[in-house]
């Protein structure tokens, strides 16, 4: 009996030791497994996508597709083509939204080009203006910044959209894409918030209620000019080039005028145009509707041939719609 108890006791001890050894083995195996697992890249299969370039060749599809027929304007007064950049403006996800032709010497756009498809026109006004911060464009060294515009209210200056947020209100991502400093110019608040805003609304209404419903795609270009318009005579005036902030050698140019031209193209059927001009001045700013041919004459010196904003569609010049 005592021997039997002794054997039972020894067996129990051995079992206890064996059990502990087994637990230790499992612990070691588990630890090794965890270490090996954690040493491997958890997202090894994920491929990092390169950041999409915004400054591109002026022949790139993401740029030229925003011009009617894929043809950019011709005959505009560009002081030095070597300092110009072509920008594919994108939304936060990298999708193309519009194009900007940018003057690196002036620090502002010569123009932005944008297209409203017939299918999107009916949705204009369905998206609220986004409350977002303005962004700078990579690859552009001289442009507007938060710091540059920090004291703008003292000069009664706004960040004036080229491609407006409102006409893109069929899709909020497109609206957000317009809040780029390369798509903005120093614009007097009295102009931006009154007559210019009024005509931005008229253009959007035309696209939504006239161009879109008849199946037209609206090709728009909003640009800047150093000329002014004598609204009483219709004649061109030479304006003085001024910087913003004033007297700041590192400032950007405040354009004397802004303009918008649009061509509604109904595929294989028709093309018609609208155009507006706005004097960007502090005293008595004004915006007027005019014909596309008259606008194209104002964009160059009186001795030069007119610019051609929509070279692919001659009908844009002949079929003029007042707004």
From TrEMBL:
Entry keyword annotation includes Iron: no
Family matches, as InterPro entries: DNA/RNA_non-sp_Endonuclease_sf, Endo_G_ENPP1-like_dom, ENDOD1, ENPP1-3/EXOG-like_nuc-like, His-Me_finger_sf
TM regions (residue ranges): 21-43
Domain ENPP1-3/EXOG-like endonuclease/phosphodiesterase: 95-307
One Gene Ontology molecular-function label: metal ion binding
DNA/RNA non-specific endonuclease/pyrophosphatase/phosphodiesterase domain location: 94-284
Top-level division of the source organism's lineage: Eukaryota
Keyword Membrane: yes
Alphabetic keyword roster: Membrane, Transmembrane, Transmembrane helix
A Pfam family the protein falls into: Endonuclease_NS
Name of this protein: Nuclease
Organism: Acropora cervicornis (Staghorn coral)
């Amino acid at each position: 009996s005592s021997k039997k108890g002794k054997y039972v006791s020894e067996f129990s001890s051995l079992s206890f030791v064996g059990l502990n050894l087994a637990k230790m083995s499992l612990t070691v195996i588990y630890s090794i497994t965890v270490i090996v697992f954690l040493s491997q890249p958890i997202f090894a299969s994920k491929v990092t996508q390169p950041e999409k370039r915004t400054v591109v060749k002026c022949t790139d599809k993401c740029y030229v597709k925003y011009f009617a027929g894929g043809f950019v304007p011709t005959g505009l007064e560009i002081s030095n083509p070597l300092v110009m950049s072509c920008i594919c403006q994108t939304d936060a996800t990298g999708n193309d939204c519009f194009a900007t032709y940018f003057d690196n010497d002036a620090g502002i756009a010569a123009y932005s080009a944008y297209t409203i498809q017939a299918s999107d026109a009916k949705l204009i006004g369905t998206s609220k203006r986004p409350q977002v911060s303005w962004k700078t464009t990579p690859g552009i060294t001289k442009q507007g910044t938060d710091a540059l515009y920090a004291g703008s209210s003292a000069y009664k200056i706004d960040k004036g959209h080229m491609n407006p947020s409102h006409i893109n209100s069929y899709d909020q991502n497109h609206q957000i894409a317009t809040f780029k400093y390369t798509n903005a110019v120093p614009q007097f608040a009295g102009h931006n918030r009154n007559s210019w805003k009024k005509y931005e609304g008229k253009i959007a209404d035309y696209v939504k209620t006239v161009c879109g419903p008849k199946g037209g795609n609206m090709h728009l270009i909003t640009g800047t000019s150093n000329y002014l318009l004598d609204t009483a005579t219709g004649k061109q005036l030479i304006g003085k080039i001024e910087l913003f902030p004033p007297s700041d050698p590192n400032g950007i140019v405040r354009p004397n005028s802004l303009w918008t031209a649009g061509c509604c193209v109904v595929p294989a059927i028709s093309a018609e145009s609208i155009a507006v001009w706005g004097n960007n001045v502090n005293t008595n700013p004004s915006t007027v509707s005019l014909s596309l041919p008259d606008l194209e004459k104002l964009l160059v010196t009186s001795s030069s041939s007119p610019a051609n904003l929509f070279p692919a569609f001659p009908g844009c010049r002949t079929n003029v719609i007042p707004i």
